[in-house]
Write a structure and sequence with these properties.
The protein is an alpha/beta fold and 422 residues long. It is 32% helix and 19% strand. A 7-stranded mixed sheet has the order 4-5-3-6-7-2-8, sandwiched between helices. A 6-stranded mixed sheet has the order 14-13-10-11-12-15. It starts with a strand and ends with a strand.
Length: 422
Amino acid sequence: MDLRLHATQSRVFRARDTHRFRVVVAGRRWGKSTEAGVELLADVAQATNGRVWYVAPTYEIARDVMWGWLRQTIPAGWLATKPNETRMAFRFRNHCMLQLKSAQDPDSLRGRGLSSVVLDEFADMEPRIWSEILRPALADVGGRALFIGTPKSFNHFYDLFQFGQSGREHWQSWQFRTLDNTTIPGLAAEIEEAKRTTDARTFHQEWEASFEALAGRAYYAFARATHVKPVELKNDLAACCSFDFNVEPATAIIGQCAGDIPRVWREVKLRHAGGEATRACGRRVKELLTQAGFTGGVRIYGDATGKSPKTTGPADHAVLHELFPSAVWCIGRSNPHVHDRIAALNSCCETLTGVRRLEVDPSCVGLIADLEQVIVDDVGELDKTSNPELTHLSDALGYWLARDFPPAPKSKAGSTRVEWLL
């Protein structure tokens, strides 16, 4: 097997035997997924009768980021049996087991000894996954851990990064910008483009791997005087209808995209619809479009969790398919992370270079209140309790903007040479 790492990835890889616990804070497209994959395979090659885990925030992320890469990369001759698709597991001829895990249920990770673990996007996991669960699992054999991800404020990931900077025994850490990956042609130009499409805080966090303070207004780049203006619904543009599936209240927004300008035309906020909340909300969206004489196409956005059936009736997605049978479906298999929704919305409000795109009609009073009043804590989590009236409409808008105006592209696999035999 021949896999190539760029210079800064190689620095991390070469520290495997001198530091048990390594922390990599890296910008988008630095090559985090490639580094993680190579580390996993090296661990497998060295861990006879061992157990190696890759842990991601969700099963969906583990499958999307790592499962396919491993399936394509692992030589068939290494494997003792066929890969287990359901458990996302590989059993090797040296009796080592490599398995992909989710951090969604921390207690499900208890009780197993490990020879090594890679924790991807550790900033998005509960801190106790490491301190209470995985750290003890490595103790018996002196196993190693690699923490890797993009920063999310000054949280537990930052604390581990500081361990590696302080000379603490067994620990080492690095902080790499996107530009530190010198193997991607045209990356510098892409970063300049990101400055024109990404808000300042998100750019520094995602591309420069900077730990940014997040507490305060969630949508800090929104300004009523700048972004609130009359919006006209046009028949030659598709209507972007985005839903946040709540029972109380049921909410949606209707907008259009004129080039790279997202415009919010109307909002829907209904109460006391009970189990028929999504149907009532969808019908109201259709009524508004009909009353406006709209004859264009429709695109549907919203919460990915609405695909699950409910005890009160059909799944939210099924209801929308029924109400909008010819619409273009723009809801993915999983939701964008809340941080990505916030970043997408802020980036549409104002980029690092001062470009402002979002327009909101004055009739959308609930959405405007959200954009002015929703706050986040110091680790970037939305406050959904202090004022139950807030967050729903901005969540709906966030599903649309994160889908069509993502704050930054996903990391891609990158290219010292790493060779080993099993």
